[in-house]
Amino acid sequence: MPLTAIVLAAGEGTRMKSRHPKVMHKLLDRPLVGWTVDCARRAGCDRIIVVVGHGAQEVRDYMGTFDDVEFVEQPQQLGTGHAVRCVFDALYSGSNPLNIQGNFIVLYGDSPLVRPQTISWLATTSAARKDSCTVLTMTPPDPTGYGRIYSEDGQVKAIIEHKDCTAAQQEALRECNSGIYCFEGTALAEGITQLSNNNAQGEYYLTDMIAWLNSRGSAVSAVHCEEYTELLGVNSRVQLASANKIMQQRINQQHMEQGVTMLDPATVWIGPDVIIGQDTEILPHTLIFGHTTVGTDCVLGPNTRLINAKVGNNCLVDETIIVDSTIDNHVTCGPRAYLRGGTHLKDGAKAGTHVELKNSVVGKGSKVPHLSYLGDTTMGSGVNIGGGSITCNYDGVHKNKTTIGNNAFIGSDTMMVAPVHIGEGAVTGASSCIYEDVPAGALGIERSPQVIKEGYAAARQQRLEKGNK
Ligand code: UD1
Ligand code: CA
């Protein structure tokens, strides 16, 4: 039996106070809707349909990177029931509801914390019970805003939205609707056309499916998720911050269980696609996002940011930013290095203090220890770049390349005006502006002669004091 996921992501999310659709707000480095879709995929759903509406283009642009997702447009946001109806109108119109195959998992795009295991558990339980609908429920300490579960003898009779509850119901009914359900396809297809919008918000509520199923004697039950934090909905920025905190703790705990040390996990932020090897230690205020992989026995941080970085084994990355770049094994970075896109530090290389590297290769054992900027540079192994040296790689129009051969020695404060080549084993004199190639083994020096003026300082002092009188 096929399992289809319908992800509702058309709402505006007024409470976010945002120009972007709610589901595009990020939990760690991934939009909310991305989490829900990823969860449906991991739970084994065969087909994933995302309902878009408010800010549809923004959601489509992001989701378009996944080729296993289909979109249905909900032109007007008339409620969660209407959103599901749009799916059946668009994809199953003309089909006899009785021919609709398999079960449907409905998830809301604003509930990013749910685990795939919970969804597959809901799906298998629902199939085993032969329910027309199984509702995933929770009992949060504060049920404000959630629909309440009204059940008798294990049969869920109705879900009553918070705003439609009487004061007594708000007090008495503590079990809440998570917004995740498993529906039997034919029952959903039929019932979804029967909903009305006669309620406090004037919306077509998906939750009214429950009462409709009861009216025709169908089985509806609940599965209760003990860990209510999995099912928290994000409706405001405050809830988004809480959800971020929960996901941060969950991810950090997984890494620690796999052998990663964290001195202060509360200040370490790691995205969902990051891989970190054993015995790596992460110091406070470190953020690791994107498709970053880190090897074993590294020390990262404090104050470090890695985005789409590839870090080998035994690296030291201290107060450093690495973006879209690779460092191999036994590499040292920082404090305060900035490795920008396309940089590659090979084994044993070093990018030291206040060093910025962009689109550059630093060969094996080569060192850029202090206060340098190298852009569009390829250097061999065993090179030493003296403090303060920079490449002048940009002429205002073109980015030009600098190449430095093995074992070259670049004197402090060398300007390398690209395009320029410094040969193997060559030396440049400190403070030289090198604008022509330096052959292998040669010295390139560009420096005006030094002048000595004996007794200058005292004479100057006298001159200045006279001037004051
Ligand atoms: C909903 C449930 C409530 C449940 C809670 C769990 C209904 C009527 N209520 O309330 O029982 O406890 O979630 O978090 O279902 N959406 C659309 N189109 C629309 C309206 C909403 O796609 O026309 C999407 C939103 O983008 C959002 C999701 O559906 O992702 C839920 O909508 P929201 O308005 O946040 O519902 P809640 O009031 O939170
Ligand atoms: Ca919600």
Give an account of the 3D structure.
21% of the residues lie in helices and 29% in strands. It is α/β, with parallel strands linked by helices and 469 residues long. It folds into two domains: 3-231, Spore Coat Polysaccharide Biosynthesis Protein SpsA, Chain A (Alpha-Beta Complex); 318-444, Hexapeptide repeat proteins (UDP N-Acetylglucosamine Acyltransferase, domain 1), CATH 2.160.10. A seven-stranded mixed beta sheet has the order 5-4-1-6-10-7-11. The protein has a seven-stranded parallel beta sheet with strand order 12-15-18-21-24-27-30, covered by helices on one side. Strands 13-16-19-22-25-28-31 form a seven-stranded parallel beta sheet. Helix 2 (56-63) links the parallel strand 4 and strand 5 (69-73). Bound molecules: uridine-diphosphate-N-acetylglucosamine (UD1) and calcium ion (CA). Residues 108, 110, 233, 235 line the site of calcium ion.
